[in-house]
Amino acid sequence: MNMQGTLSGKVALVTGAGKNIGRAIALRLAADGACVVVNGRRDAAALEAVVSEINGRGGQAVMALADVSDPAAVGRMVSDAAAAFGGIDILVSNAGLRRQTPFLDMSLDEWREILSVALDGAFILARAVAPHMIRRGGGAIVALSGISTHIGTANRCHVSASKAGLEGLIRALAIELAPHGITANCVAPGSVDTVRGESAGVARPISTMRRFHCGARRHWKTSPAWSATSPAPTAPTSPARRST
Fold this sequence. Notes:
Blueprint (H helix, E strand, L loop, with lengths): L10 E4 L5 H12 L3 E6 L3 H13 L4 E5 L5 H15 L4 E4 L14 H28 L3 E6 L3 H4 L5 H21 L4 E6 L21 E6 L4 E6 L20
Parallel strand pairs: 1-2, 1-4, 2-3, 4-5, 5-6
Antiparallel strand pairs: 7-8
């Protein structure tokens, strides 16, 4: 780890950091010098592995088991992190639940469960860390959205809705917290090879997907029938000017 990296002296809280994208983010932040609070809801062994990996490379990390949809648990986690490292400068709201349920079979309880983590959790976390960031003269809030929010995905309307709300929340925070030196941004990754639970459905291998331009602004979209031997997609062209 580069203890004198670009984030030396900064403290980052990463939720859903036991595996996949969250784990990679925690490792990258630590590699750039940040002290990292590695959060997850249940899998203590996975969190301990990430913490051990960071500390073993000369970084600084601690584990924090907490349900981000529980305001009391988040409050304790943030207070403990601030006590351990002196404050919080970076929040990465990555925690989310992945479910595959047809709309006509979806219960209100399942709908609320998904939104409670991705959307309510992001609000609860931001509300808890913002005062710490203000005291330190600024900070950064980053939330993980998803491409399905923009293109639509069958059997995941609750996930898409939670991420759409998340993007609205982050846009509002970017405006409201800017005077305090706090930035707020959303990242919407495309297809990523990850470990998935059974409730998330079967992942289609990225090697069997293709990419093409979609929409007025020529967004990349990924869909079936692309292989590694297919020609690489061409660079995006400027969007056509709309007639008035």
